[in-house]
């Protein structure tokens, strides 16, 4: 089971305004990160001005992108891709976050500090990777995020550049939804931060912040899905 770290020393900002960006500063200690997620916030660095260091910012999008447990859209081609991969959980967290942090990716935002912070959360049992592997043992894609009770806060996903990896991140998302549906699925919350056209094609919808916060409170009272409460090398096929 996850290990609760020391509490944050920071007072969390209010999410009563309309802006997605709600605060700057604080730190990336495990206690701060968990307090943020429990209050509908997540960190993402931004460059304030050209030539200045990257500042840590805290976000609470309005509206918020979520994937309803019964709303996942799986195309025929994606169903075919699912049969090509093996799904594993938490067997290559470092490799997944490294791939997601690749600075050559469009919109790359995962700094070294962010990567190290989530690796600490992973060691404490809060951050998880869902991985897609080829039959010959190559990591084809995956995603990572934070699981607290019935909440899974997705952070980033990737797929290998080889042709066989094209749908690998989508397959990982399908597997994640199946894991969250196992035992007590009602009330679980899959947060994807912002909705995009690509995510909408998979069933992601946008909801007002206050509705998200209300769903979040209920989700946090639920138990972890079994996939995230068991041994680190739990595997699903």
Question: What would your notes on this structure say?
Answer:
There is one protein chain. The protein is of the alpha+beta class and about 240 residues long. The protein has a domain at about 65-230: Aminopeptidase. Helices cover about 30% and strands about 25% of the residues. The protein is built from eight helices and eleven strands. It has helices spanning about 30-40, 75-80, 95-100, 110-125, 170-180, 195-200, 210-220, 225-230, and strands spanning about 20-25, 40-45, 55-60, 65, 85-90, 125-135, 140-150, 150-160, 190-195, 205, 235. The chain has an eight-stranded mixed β-sheet, sandwiched between helices. Strands 1-3-2 form a three-stranded antiparallel β-sheet. Helix 5 (about 170-180) links the parallel strand 8 and strand 9 (about 190-195). Helix 2 packs across helix 5 (about 170-180). The longest helix is centred in the C-terminal third of the chain and has 14 residues, at about 170-180. About 40% of the residues are buried. Residues about 50-55 and about 230-235 have low confidence and may be disordered. Its main location: cytoplasm. Functions in the N-end rule pathway of protein degradation where it conjugates Leu, Phe and, less efficiently, Met from aminoacyl-tRNAs to the N-termini of proteins containing an N-terminal arginine or lysine.
Catalogue the unreliable spans: 48-53, 232-237
Helix fraction by DSSP (H/I, runs of at least 4): 25-40%
Strand content: 15-25%
How widely separated are the two ends?
A: 22 Å
Which strand order spans the largest sheet, edge to edge or round the barrel? 10-4-9-8-7-6-5-11
Query: Which CATH architecture of one domain would you pick?
Result: 3-Layer(aba) Sandwich
Identify the CATH homologous superfamily of one domain.
Leucyl/phenylalanyl-tRNA-protein transferase, C-terminal domain
Class inferred from helices and paired strands: alpha+beta
Element-by-element helix/strand order: EHEEEHEHHEEEHEHEHHE
The shape, in one word, is globular
Major sheet size, sense and barrel closure:
8 strands, mixed
CATH class of one domain: Alpha Beta
Seen as an oligomer or otherwise, the chain set is: single chain
